[in-house]
Amino acid sequence: MNASPEPRSGRRTAERRLRWLALCAAGLAASCGGGGDAAAPAPAPVAGAPSPAPGPAAAPSPSPSPPAQAPSAPTAVATVASGLDHPWGLAFLPDGRFLVTERAGRLRLISTSGGLTTISGLPAVQATGQGGLLDIALDPAFASNQRIYWSYNEAGSGAEAGRNGLAVARGVLDLASASVGNVQVILRQTPKVAGSSGHFGGRIAFGRDGHLFVTMGDRQNDSERGYAQDLSRGHGKVARIHADGTIPADNPFVATAGARSDIWSYGHRNPQGAAVHPATGELWSVEHGPQGGDELNVVRAGRNFGWPLISHGCEYGATPADRCTPVGGATSAPAMEQPLAHWVPYSTAPSGLMFYTGSRFGAWTGKLFAGALSGRTLWRFDIDNGGSIACTPPGGQAPSNCSEVPLVKNLNLRIRDVRQGPQGHVFLLTDQGGNADRLLRLD
Ligand SMILES: [Ca+2]
User: Fold this and answer.
1) Over residues 135-163, mean pLDDT
2) Ligand 1 centre and the CA of 288: distance in Å?
3) What's the pTM?
4) Looking at the domain assignment, is residue 140 inside a domain?
């Protein structure tokens, strides 16, 4: 269904606007208002004009518009760079180059021809288990301030020696010397924990108003996962901060005694994908459930997303045929959010989330995409069709609103991140280990 041909015409942009309006009026109405970030008028989700930024790898002379005979969906995969080591996050520089994090702690500058340079000047990263150097983002005003932001696992020191936790830092990138200066740590997930190297969350995304969202996992210790419900701790939360690390006055818990003022939402397990809806400005996220029960959520201010009190997944060890008791004992509860979509009975381990707003691939415009690690695929959500979304991993019957992209499924690689680049291309990071760790472009 990805490749269904659609004729191009001058009415396309208007039609897309109508589709987004239909999204708001139909099954996904709740996603179009009510959130703390949703007050601003919604811009047209599809840019009528191409991105002003120069093109990526295979387009040495930037072409301002897609070729006349461009396919309506990607039909080929090109390797932009190989030789990476567990790449995790991706950002696009205005000059056509790329920044890619490697979990082991290197920030890579990648040329349009795939050449790798290591950026120096980052603070120490503790690379262990799922932890290390994680996501990367450019400041919305990067062209004038050259500022970049990254998330990572920070080792504790002093009284916190032997513990670790997620941190977010920013600095000023000097491309000429391939270094970062003026580094400031702007967020720490506290308290740091002992005995875990997992569930950091770690995605960062700028909201339309310039606030920075940070997803923070529950840190995987079973005995401590209840902290996801504890507003005094950073576990299992999404944070929202100003770009300098200070706290927005309209954060939902700033007036709650004992609560961290940076909390935007709570009750999360391990959110590894985050993207801001192009029409509503709301944060959407995908998170890892336990065994089964991975979730797609619309992350609204002050809401409780349930972990570990409710879940659509089982404790590890249940067989797929088991009718397990969900973690927490129930799949729903009053005053707790339900995911927009969830995966059962298998996990797909979603990582990376992208609203496709480009016009290069017309059949993808207005769709949402999530990478998958254990699922080794790219999920496509036809959110613009309205109605409910349910995802059933391989072996099941996938409903039409949630499907896998065959082009990516056939790669059989763990997809860590998916991003829309300049000129409407789609880029993937594969986190496979060995020679298969790459930056890919879908053509
Ligand atoms: Ca949940």
Assistant:
1) 98
2) 9
3) 0.84
4) yes
Whole-number Å distance, alpha carbon 308 to ligand 1 midpoint, is 8
Please determine, for residue 91, whether its predicted confidence score (pLDDT) is greater than 90.
yes
Selected catalytic residue, list 86, 199, 277, 312:
199
- Structural domain count of the chain: 1
Q: Which residues surround ligand 1, an ion (CB under 5 A)?
A: 305-306
**pLDDT value, residue 434:** 84
Q: Does 66 reside within a domain?
A: no
Which residue segment(s) compose the domain that 16 sits in?
A: 12-59+80-442
Tell me whether residue 73 is in a domain: no
Q: Which residue has the higher pLDDT, 343 or 174?
A: 174
Residue 385: pLDDT above 90?
no
For the chain, give the secondary structure using H, E and C.
Answer: CCCCCCCCCCCHHHHHHHHHHHHHHCCCHHHHCCCCCCCCCCCCCCCCCCCCCCCCCCCCCCCCCCCCCCCCCCCCEEEEECCCCCEEEEEECCCCCEEEEECCCCEEEECCCCCEEEEECCCCCCCECCECEEEEEECCCHHHHCEEEEEEEEECCHHHCCCEEEEEEEEEEECCCCEEEEEEEEEECCCCECCCCCCCEEEEEECCCCCEEEEECCCCCHHHHHHHHCCCCCCCEEEEECCCCCCCCCCCCCCCCCCCCCEEEECCCCEEEEEECCCCCCEEEEECCCECCEEEEEECCCCECCCCCCCCCECCCCCCCCCCCCCCCCCCCCCCCCCCEEECCCCCCEEEEEECCCCCCHHHCCCEEEEECCCCEEEEECHHHCCCCCECCCCCCCCCCEEECHHHHCCCCCEEEEEECHHHCEEEEECCCHHHCCEEEEC
Is 72 part of any domain? no
Look up the CATH number of the domain holding residue 191. Answer: 2.120.10.30
Distance 124 CA to ligand 1 centre (A): 33
342 included as an active-site residue = no
- What is the share, in percent, of the chain residues with pLDDT greater than 70? 82
Q: Tell me, in angstroms, the distance from the centre of ligand 1 to residue 262's CA.
A: 20
